Amino acid sequence: TAKKVQHTPYCLFSKDMRQQLSYLHEIEESLHRAVREKEFQVHYQPQYSLHSLKLVGAEALVRWPRSDRMVSPCEFIPLAEKFGLISAIGEFVFETAARQLQAWSHCKIELPRVAINTSSTQLLAGNFGDVVERILQENQLTANRIDIEVTESVMMKNIERNGNNENANCLSTLQEKGLEISIDDFGTGYSSLSYIKHLNVDRIKIDKSFIDDIEFNKEARSIVRAIIKMGHSLGMKVLAEGIETPNQLDILKALECDEGQGYLFSKPLDAAKFEMKCLSA
Ligand code: C2E
Ligand code: MG
Ligand code: MG
Ligand code: MG
C-alpha cells in the first residue's frame, strides 16, 4: 500500500532527525571537553627514504581515545571543523609533536622531521605564522624539522574562493621561515594541475589509492610514474603513501620514488612504541 502523507504540524523534526541532532549535540559537547581536557593523543607513522631505507621523518596523526574505542580522525576532524575546534586541535598536535621531536633528540632517536597535517581554517587563521614561531622557539627546533601537509583540495578551495591564493601566500611565508611544505593525498583532489606551478612546494605525497593499484593496474602505474617525473622536474621530492606490500615497494623504487610510508614499514605508533621501534632498528 502507498504511504499516506502524514500531516503533523507540531512535529518539525522526525524522530530520526531528532536523534541525529542530539547525537551531533553530544559529539559537540564531548569534542569541546576533549579540547579543554587535552584528551587527544598523537601517533607517529615513520617515513623512509626508499633509496637507503633510512628513517627520514614521521607523520603526526591525531587520535581520540574514548571509553569504548579509538575514534578515527576521519570521523571527528570534519566535525571539529564544523564546530570551530580544528585550530585548537591542530595546535595541540603541532605542540605535542614538536615537544616529542625535541625529547627524542635527547635519547638518541634521530628523527629528521615531523609532518603536521593542517586544515585550511588553521592555515588561514591570521596567527598561524606566530603559532609556528612560538612552537619552534619553545622547543628549540629549526624550521626545517617541520613539514606542513596541506591537501590539494584545501589549496584549490582557497584559490577559487579568494581569486588570489591566500593559502599560497601563507604557505610561502612558512617556506620563507624554512618549513617544508607537502601536498597531501595528491591526485585525488582536482584535475587541474595549473596551481602546482604557483606553489613551489617541497614534496608531493601520492595518495594511497594509486599505490593500492600500482601492482596490477597499468594505468595506475603510469600515473604514478608521471607524478614522480613531474615532481622531480619541478624540483620536488615525491613520497608514496600507504605502501603495504614488498612488490609495491619494488615498483616504487624502480620508478625512483624518493620516500614512502605505509603498513609495510609500520602502522602509526604511539610515542613509546615509536621509540622502541627506532631504538631496536
Ligand atoms: P592522511 O594525512 O592522508 O594520513 C594518512 C592516513 O592513512 C592515516 O590515517 C594513516 O593511518 C593511514 N595509513 C598510512 N599507511 C597506511 C597503509 O599502508 N594502509 C592503510 N590502509 N592506511 C594507511 P588516519 O590516521 O586515520 O588519518 C586519516 C586522516 O585524518 C589523515 O589522512 C588526515 O587527513 C586527517 N588527520 C589526521 N591527523 C590530523 C591532524 O592532526 N590535523 C588534521 N587537520 N587532520 C588530521
Ligand atoms: Mg597527511
Ligand atoms: Mg595523506
Ligand atoms: Mg591519504
Automatic annotation (TrEMBL):
Coiled coil: none annotated. It comes from the Bacteria. Residues 24-281 form the EAL domain. This is EAL domain-containing protein. It comes from Hydrogenovibrio thermophilus. The lineage of its organism: Bacteria, Pseudomonadati, Pseudomonadota, Gammaproteobacteria, Thiotrichales.
